[in-house]
Amino acid sequence: MTTTLKEAERGRALKVTEFAERLGPFGLKLLAGMGIKKGAELEIDPAFVSNLVLGIQGTTVQIGFESAMGIVLGGKRLTDLKVGETGIITALELGRESAQRFVALGFAKGANVSLEKYVPGPGPLFISVQKMHIAIVNLEGFVLIRDELYDYELPGEFVFVDIDGKEKQLCTMSVGERGKITRILGGEDLTAELDRHWIKEGNEVQALHRSETPGDALMVWVIDERHHIPTGLTEKIYVDIV
């Protein structure tokens, strides 16, 4: 499946299939100098601009790169795994509250975890709860302060929703999907914060809109050389998985 470099899987061998017409001769020349031409193979370095899709305790979950850096597998980090590799969790180097949430998600010491793929970080997801309340969820939710206004992005990776008999994380819902909240993991503080936004077991939710992320500059490997691809170019390079 052809996609832009911006939306492509990280840590996988990719082949350049074409360039957007709006790239222009300067952009083509810049990329050619890095060895990025039609037919060239490259790989996106997953560091800091990716989420991880993981298999753990019989469930597929998605977590952020920064949190994954705090999950230790013997002598390496979870973020050191390559696609298809597995490891055993030996320690959680996270804050106490974060550690409690991730243990509830299945990331306990001794658990086996496998890396299915690295994917781009999604933008904030606007959801309707009970057809009456609007909330914003994201992976690794946070609070943004803009002009003294607080924009809440609630951590949706700890909330699970049943959609037509299949369970998935709230933050990974596709626009238009509807479902019912089945479980909330992560402790009393998180449960209370989510409850303020009507996000609780049994309530119905619908994914309304996902904001586009502005994109990130990417580091890519071309043969044995590492190159920096500016933000404006990542949307103009089309690739397929090899």
Description:
- The protein has helices spanning 24-32, 65-69, 96-104, 188-195, 231-234; strands spanning 3-4, 14-19, 41-44, 50-56, 59-64, 71-73, 76-77, 86-88, 91-92, 112-120, 125-129, 133-138, 143-146, 149-152, 154-155, 159-163, 166-169, 178-184, 204-210, 218-222, 225-229, 237-241.
- It is mainly beta.
- It has three domains: 11-43, no CATH class; 50-120, no CATH class; 125-210, no CATH class.
- The strands form five sheets. Strands 15-12-11-19-18-16-17 form a seven-stranded mixed beta sheet, covered by helices on one side.
- It is globular.
Jot down its keywords.
242 residues, mainly beta, 3 domains, 7-stranded mixed beta sheet, 6-stranded antiparallel beta sheet, 5 helices, 22 strands
User: Which structural class do you get from the secondary structure elements?
Assistant: mainly beta
The Rg value, from CA coordinates, equals 19 Å
Amino-to-carboxy terminus distance? 10 Å
How would you spell out the order of helices and strands?
EEHEEEHEEEEHEEEEEEEEEHEEEHE
> What number is the mean pLDDT?
89
Strand content: 35-45%
Profile the largest sheet.
7 strands, mixed
Number of domains: 3
Shape: globular
Binned, the helix content reads: 10-25%
Number of strands: 22
